[in-house]
Automatic annotation (TrEMBL):
Protein name listed in UniProt: tRNA uridine(34) hydroxylase
Reaction it catalyzes: uridine(34) in tRNA + AH2 + O2 = 5-hydroxyuridine(34) in tRNA + A + H2O
Protein keywords: Oxidoreductase, tRNA processing
Originating organism: Methylobacterium gossipiicola
GO biological process: tRNA modification
Gene: trhO
Organism placement in taxonomy: Bacteria, Pseudomonadati, Pseudomonadota, Alphaproteobacteria, Hyphomicrobiales
Length: 249
């Protein structure tokens, strides 16, 4: 059984280009596969390997000399895979760690309010709440929270146009969610910058909700698409291998 780590952190990394080679070397030494993206705004990716190797990588990122403590608050969601979910390792430098608007929106400027998975169900019961699934339509097709709006996007960069068509005055309270939390941080910040007064995001995303909330209390319906060979996960982050890749996207 392999350990899979989905990780991200918005943090200033002006030395992203210089970090690429050492990060790749560290991963290769540990036998890690997957994808890591580096940008001036932070780090994002999903990697897999033996449990000890993944633990060593996370320790090095959080407290090793490479990042000098800048990733000590790295957000990590752990799950498992019976077979290797990635065929190789890719470490790349990009303009953004999640493509949205060329880096113009940074979560630190207009942050949304994160809501812990344990408190998410109570928020869903709020009268007049606009609940938005920020993921792409092929992801939404596998599962979502009941009552969530599907913006119908094919890629995350299209989400801005959806937001621009909404009236902030008509939606005093908004909640949004995504797979691991990173897209919500960007989307939530953008909505706040567009005048939406109260914007909440599911802390840690769907993955942390499925991991944390007992199945008897879980309001998620269907499965959660993941961007690796496992295709989808269910409650308690159990693999759902019955989705054919060719039917998605």
């Amino acid at each position: 059984m392999l350990t899979v780590a989905a990780l991200y952190r918005f943090v200033d990394l002006p030395d992203a280009d210089a970090l690429r080679d050492p990060v790749e070397a560290l991963c290769r030494d540990l036998g890690i596969t997957g994808t890591l993206l580096l940008a001036r705004e932070g780090i994002n990716g999903t990697v897999a390997g033996e449990m000890d190797a993944v633990t060593q990588l996370l320790d090095a990122l959080r407290s090793g000399p490479l990042f000098g403590g800048r990733l000590r608050d790295l957000d990590v969601k752990l799950s498992s895979a019976e077979a290797a979910p990635f065929g190789r390792l890719k470490v790349r430098v990009k303009p953004e760690i999640v493509t949205f608007d060329g880096g113009a929106t940074h979560p630190a400027f207009c942050p949304a309010r994160p809501v812990a998975p344990e408190a998410w169900n109570a928020l869903l019961d709020t009268p007049g709440l606009l609940l938005i699934d920020t993921r792409n339509r092929f992801e939404v097709a596998l599962g979502s929270f009941p009552g969530a709006v599907d913006p119908g996007t094919r890629r995350f960069s299209e989400f801005r146009a959806y937001v621009d068509g909404l009236d902030p005055a008509a939606h005093p309270k908004v909640a949004m969610f995504c797979t691991g939390g990173i897209r919500c941080e960007k989307a939530g910040a953008y909505m706040r910058s567009r005048g939406f007064a109260e914007v909440h995001t599911l802390e840690g995303g769907i993955l942390r909700y499925l991991e944390t909330v007992p199945e008897t209390e879980n309001r998620w319906t269907g499965d959660c698409f993941v961007f690796d060979g496992r295709i989808a996960l269910g409650p308690a982050l159990v693999e759902r291998p019955d989705h054919a890749p060719e039917t998605l996207r």
